[in-house]
Amino acid sequence: MNDADLERLRTNSLFSTMSQAVRESLFEGAFELDMPAGSTLFKQGEDPRFLYVVQVGRVALLGHSDDKVETVVEFFDKDDVFIMPAVMLELPYLMSARTVEDSSIVMIPSHRFREAIDRDHALALAAVRELSAHWRLLTRQVKDLKLRTAPQRLGAYLLNIADAAADEATVELPEQRGLLARRLGMTPENLSRAFARLRELGVSSKGRTISLHDIPALREFCVYDDLI
Known about the structure:
With 228 residues, the chain is of the alpha+beta class. Helix content is 43%, strand content 23%.
C-alpha cells in the first residue's frame, strides 16, 4: 500500500484511536487489491483469513441455501470494515462476498487483527462499537422482514437513502434492482409490484433514479421512524 492508502486506514474509525506501535504492526502485513465488479472475495463456509476494509467501491455479502438460492444480506461501502465476527471468533464465513462495482479492498491478516485486539484497549473498544452498530442494522432488517409488507420495506429503504425529513426528494439507487430485490427479501417481480404500489404515494422511477413526491405520505404508509 502507498502512503495515501495507509493514511486513509489510519483515519478509519476502527483504527484511529489505537496506539501507533500496534497500528504499524497491524498494517505491516496488510495489502490492497483492485478488483473488478463481480469479483468474489471469499465464499460461504471458508475459514476467515483476512479482515476486509473497503477503500473504494461497494461489496455485497451474499447468503446461499443448499438448493443454490442466493440472497443479499448487506452492502458495504467506502471505509466500511466487514466480516469482523468471523475473524474474531475464528469461525467459517456465514456468507460470501462479491464486489458489485470496481473496488479497492484492503486485506488485513486475521491473526494480526486478533493479536492487535489483545494488545490494544482502544482498538477493542472501537471493535465493540463497530459490532454494536452492525447488530442494530441487522435488527432493523429483521424487524422490516417481520413487520412490514414488501411495499413498506421498499418505501422504508427509499426513505433511508433520502432526506426523510423533507417533503420531496430524488435519489439514485446505489445498486441494480435485482440486487436491491434480494437485499429486501423479494423477487424482482415482487419489487416491480412494490414500486407500482408506491406510485399511489407519489413515488416515480426511471431506471435507478427515484423521485419521492410526497415523503410525509410515504412515511405514514411505511410506519417509518428515524431510529438508527
